[in-house]
Amino acid sequence: MTLALPHAGTAPSVKRAVRRADRPARRAAFLLSLPLLAFLAIAFVVPIAALFTTAVDNPETRSVLPDTLRALAAEPSAAVPGEPVFAELAHDLARAGKARTAALLGKRLNYEIPGMRSIVMAGSRLAAASSQGPWRQKFCDSDPAWGDPALWAAIRRNGARLTPYYMLTAVDLQQTPSGGLAPVAPEQRIFLDILGRTLLVAATVTLLTLFLGYPVAYALTLAPPLLGAIMMLCILLPLWTSLLVRTTAWVVLLQSNGIINDLLIGMGLISKRLQLIFTRFGTVAAMTHIQLPFTILPIASVMRTIPVAQLRAARSLGAPPMSAFWRIYVPQTLPGVMAGCLITFILSLGYYITPALVGGPTDQMVSNFISVYINRDLNWGLASALGVVLLAVTLLIYGLFLRIVGADKLRLG
Amino acid sequence: MNAPHTLPAPPKPGSPEAIADATSFVRFERVRKSYDGIHFVVEDLNLAVRKGEFLTMLGPSGSGKTTSLMMLGGFEEPTFGHIFLGDEPVERLAPEKRNIGFVFQSYALFPHMTVAENVAFPLRYRGIKGTAAADKVAKALGMVHLGHLAARKPCQMSGGQQQRVALARALVFDPTLVLMDEPLGALDKQLREHMQVEIKQLQRMLGITMVYVTHDQSEALTMSDRIAVFNDGRVQQLAAPEMLYEQPANSFVAGFIGENNLMPATVDATEGGIATLTMGDGSRLQAPNPAGVAVGAKARLAIRPERFFIQVGDARGPLNILRGPITDMFYLGDHVRLSVAVGGDKPVVARIPVSQRRPFARGETVTLGCAVTDCRLLEG
Amino acid sequence: MLVLNRNFFLSLIASTAVFSASAAVADPTLSIMSFGGAYQSAQRKAVFDAFTAKTGDKVVEQEYGGEIAKIKAMVDSGNTTLDVIDVDAPTLQQGCDEGIFETLDWSKIGSQSEWLPGTSSECGVGTVVYATVLAYDAAKTKDGPTKITDLFDTQKFPGKRGLWKNPATNLEFALMADGVAPADVYKVLETPAGVDRAFKKLDTIKKDIVWWEAGAQAPQVLASGEVAMTTAWNGRIFNANKEGRQFKIVWDHEILDSDLWVIPKGAKHVDASLAFIKFAVEPQTLADMTKFIPYGPVRTTAAAFVQPDIATSLPTSPQNMTGAITLNNAFWGDKGDEIRKRFTTWLAQ
């Protein structure tokens, strides 16, 4: 390749030539970053893609009742299908019983119609036990639910490859038989409430860490080196102990016969012991404590970059101390404030052990339900859907945030 | 052994008597500053700044000049002593109440504000709003030729431009006094020299009093009406640039301002203000003795390199003659710089204009002449 | 295209969850996973060590928190490294239904009829029975509660009550305290009116309830005086007393549940595993377990081997079984999610 000399005086072609000359270096830089990109793809992009697919994936009915679904398609208008469908159902369920897949179907249908788990399992045993029809008769005799149009509507609906069920449930909605959307029954409406309280607690904790942490960060920047190092150690120390230990420490502090109540009674400030533990207050106090370093560190590191001369200049120009602080110092710390608050807010969305141990009856957070649905109920569709909702809300807040303060305002130091 | 004083000592420069000056506008009186209570960064500072003058505090780093400026600006409090602004003692007054413009070494522009907002900042605290403020800002920016960049943020400007903004911001509210702390330190040589002239012109045009801190003597000589030379927390000499150069008060000033040959000598006799000296190699020279160094005392003879000439033939008039071989020489276009071993512990340096004589040869013995009035005897 | 299905998730988890388990390679070595803590240490003393001494087969122990997701991940990954797992009853039911556990050859274990009802299945062999019971601190309360109705009697027994933050056990206690016969509890709960009735009963003490989530919290809130009485798992109360507490269990209308041994699908040493399970549920082995932890043996024939002084503190002792019921895991499998959601909204009201 020959390098054509750019025509002197034409800036774009010079730029192009420079860019061309830089190309090998850029390519080398890209190659060097490949391992990280691959790591990000595996550790970040792929799981999130899996999260999204799991939230809408609907394989159970299709894999367990393939022949039933085919026969159902031949009777598109029947609320409760006829004998041919029931015969295929018996055939499918018998096979599923042998392959031990009936429970998958039962669990899936049970999400939409409580009790379906038992009905499907019983149906599978019935199909295995008898060799002969009439199947519709036999199924309906064993459990009248088989004659319920709602059951068959659910089976038809779940013949689809994808399902909106999990995503709708995660926002307290359901599909009506006519295909529209409606809120779920009032006593089943929990997830929007829980999402709301999760956001509220995260926001409260974020603001508290800011109010408590900002002066600390400022003191940290002003302190002489030795004192500063000791302060920094005290701030970082809690990070070296496990979350559980710190939470347990709060149990000791907050309980009715705990240190805080003893102190308040000892000082004569209260006569009746305060309920501090198992309240929202307990949750917020413990979470604020745990999150403080995450808010303080970015703020302090940004404060360190602000020269002393800034405040002096403001004073010399006529600004009283407080005014100089608010107009000159505080705006320059905003990037750190934003970064610290964002970190704390997002981390706070994921708490569930701390609210469980020191929180009140209404302090179950979204992540608590995600954990339960993953570990205990194996309802990964709903867990993923809740994860997607949480992710979407987080991204939305993050986006709004950048929109309001500007991406350049976010700095860690 | 101390010789008896034959002359009454003139008042020491910087002493309270010396600064009792009717035109003084800023006064430091016996100001001392210590951060730890043991070491004093500023020792007994007495200094008066006249109204409308450009006064430079010059000295090596650690000499106390910046601390003095900070005390005047209100960012440090004197440990002892008083600072007067006009007739008012201000050493306990908050900086925002002093109405002093301050230009910092780092400029200290507010990065989150535009240039115009930066310059308008001091106006809001003086109740100047709206068009009045806008006019003042435009005028101040016009003064520093930055009217067209008012909407920029500081980070979008060059160092020189930022410096001008800082200047405009310090001038816009018509301060009674402007302080500058090495404001040109971060600029390259050419720009620095250009700004020196510009700042000086502005100061003269506006007739404001400026106190300027620098460690760059050529900057100080270029800009100042008077220079206070600081060393070890004290003012060594306060004088106009020419005086400092021609009549340094002591060896430190003589060595710090410009280049100087400082040669150890002993005073043999002094008569009519002219002392006769014995040099290290036994030769005898003469020099004016304005400081009144006593007979028998150790002293230093100061001779500027450019005051030497090549002596040919007999000496006419009161001349000092030094002879020795050339140990080193550099051709510098307009002059030749010679090192001549005249017999002291160090060779003397002489600058001989090329118009006078060339070429020179290394090892050649030359005779250097120097008018007695161009020599100066200093306490050593 | 749904190429990324939940199997992908499972294998991701599996690769980390059972990474350490793959260390077990030597053939006669059995890899056994249980719940850790005092429970597993009792198993070690009474079962694992005795089994090794008797057969020479080594036991490598694993611990987990009862997460079925971990087991499913391992099985789905096609590399089952565990041989025997101690699971709770809901896990047994779910894993058995979904084919995560092997079907057992009962002829190699013993007569299934010797097991208490609901503590054995085609996949699992019951090992212990534990109970959710009402307990109080005798050091603080002299005349403590004696009946389950006292849990709901804030007149006679003022103070806060600790309850598990979960509808299971609480709805049952509420109905029994409201007069429903133990045998009819789940019949009533099957109906919407029955669930309403249980919640209504809980309403009467709602403002006095302190909810605990982790099993260790129950004795903690009792010890700290946060509550006057609490429901708790009987093993936790026993352990607290071993550490010097004077907690008393109210043996009235306890709710029993069991742990079971299972073999995960695809396990490598099925015969040795069956031999282990057979040994682990021998009447003498089960009776030995009770020396270390007060969980009742599930095999009726084991009762004769239990020391009489220990027998009194077991949930399966006849004098402790007044009004006892067994937690109906089939019911909670069917209705659990629905009722838990209602429970959550009820908490927030």
TrEMBL record, chain A:
Record-linked Pfam families: BPD_transp_1
GO cellular component, one term: plasma membrane
Keywords: Cell membrane, Membrane, Transmembrane, Transmembrane helix, Transport
Keyword presence, Transport: yes
Main subcellular location: membrane
Gene Ontology terms: biological process: transmembrane transport
TM regions (residue ranges): 29-52, 194-214, 226-243, 249-270, 337-358, 378-401
SUPFAM superfamilies referenced in this protein's UniProt entry, alphabetically: MetI-like
InterPro entries linked: MetI-like, MetI-like_sf
Residues covered by the ABC transmembrane type-1 domain: 195-401
Protein's cellular compartments: Cell membrane
Topology with respect to the bilayer: Multi-pass membrane protein
Domain of life: Bacteria
Keyword Transferase: no
Family: Belongs to the binding-protein-dependent transport system permease family. CysTW subfamily.
Protein name per the record: ABC transporter permease
Organism: Lichenifustis flavocetrariae
TrEMBL record, chain B:
Membrane topology per record: Peripheral membrane protein
Main location: membrane
Alphabetic keyword roster: ATP-binding, Cell membrane, Membrane, Nucleotide-binding, Translocase, Transport
Catalysed reactions, as listed in the record: ATP + H2O + polyamine-[polyamine-binding protein]Side 1 = ADP + phosphate + polyamineSide 2 + [polyamine-binding protein]Side 1
Domain of life, per lineage: Bacteria
ABC transporter domain ranges (all copies): 26-257
Listed Pfam families: ABC_tran, TOBE_2
GO (cellular component) term, any one: ATP-binding cassette (ABC) transporter complex
The keyword Transport is annotated on this UniProt entry: yes
Enzyme Commission code(s) on record: 7.6.2.11
InterPro entries in the cross-refs: AAA+_ATPase, ABC_SmlMolc_Importer, ABC_transporter-like_ATP-bd, ABC_transporter-like_CS, Mo/tungstate-bd_C_term_dom, P-loop_NTPase, PotA-like, Transp-assoc_OB_typ2
GO molecular function: ABC-type polyamine transporter activity; ATP binding; ATP hydrolysis activity
Record's subcellular location: Cell inner membrane
Coiled-coil region list: none
SUPFAM superfamilies, per the entry: MOP-like (SSF50331), P-loop containing nucleoside triphosphate hydrolases (SSF52540)
Subunit structure comment from the entry: The complex is composed of two ATP-binding proteins (PotA), two transmembrane proteins (PotB and PotC) and a solute-binding protein (PotD).
Biological function: Part of the ABC transporter complex PotABCD involved in spermidine/putrescine import. Responsible for energy coupling to the transport system.
NCBIfam families from the UniProt entry: potA
Family: Belongs to the ABC transporter superfamily. Spermidine/putrescine importer (TC 3.A.1.11.1) family.
Name of this chain's protein: Spermidine/putrescine import ATP-binding protein PotA
Species this protein is from: Lichenifustis flavocetrariae
Taxonomic placement: Bacteria, Pseudomonadati, Pseudomonadota, Alphaproteobacteria, Hyphomicrobiales
Automatic annotation (TrEMBL), chain C:
InterPro entries: SBP
Domain of life of the native organism: Bacteria
Iron-sulfur in keyword set: no
Signal sequence segment: 1-26
Sections of the chain in a coiled coil: none
Keywords: Periplasm, Signal
Origin species: Lichenifustis flavocetrariae
Stored Gene3D superfamilies: Periplasmic binding protein-like II (3.40.190.10)
Keyword Signal: yes
Name of this protein: ABC transporter substrate-binding protein
Pfam families: SBP_bac_8 (PF13416)
